[in-house]
Amino acid sequence: MDEQGALITQSQYRVLKALECTPDAKPIDRLKEHHRVVGSGVQYVQTNEDKLGGQLGTKRGARYQVYTQLTEYYKTHQDTLFAQQVLKEALDEIYRWPLLERAKDLLNRRLRERVPMDSVAELVIALYEDKRLVNKPDDVDDHAAIKQPRIICSMGLRKPAP
Known about the structure:
The protein is mainly α and 162 residues long.
């Protein structure tokens, strides 16, 4: 975000490169508007959360493939016996948390074998019910709390003085 609260980049790499400094670099005072700008960033994320992308990884990755294909599967079977609420809950977990390695391996194998989506859905549900699907922190149980962004640290950047 710039000083006016406009988005500059979403690239973590570009942000980290901009923060790069030598150990002997002198700190500078933060902007007077620092917390307002951070608030603008949080508001941007909340408003555009569904459009941001990147949460699911690359388009070729297991998480992205499983999420997109099973979401489509769920939508096409929404008014049938096959649309289970537990599948919707598992999809929500996949969207919010990274897959466990074993789950990723199993799902990748199923995707490579091109098994029917019913079979993938059954596997996802079984892994979800056994708590072997995603790497979700133990201290997170409240669904509403998951959706709230947590600011761990905020750093401001300034253009060097001329």
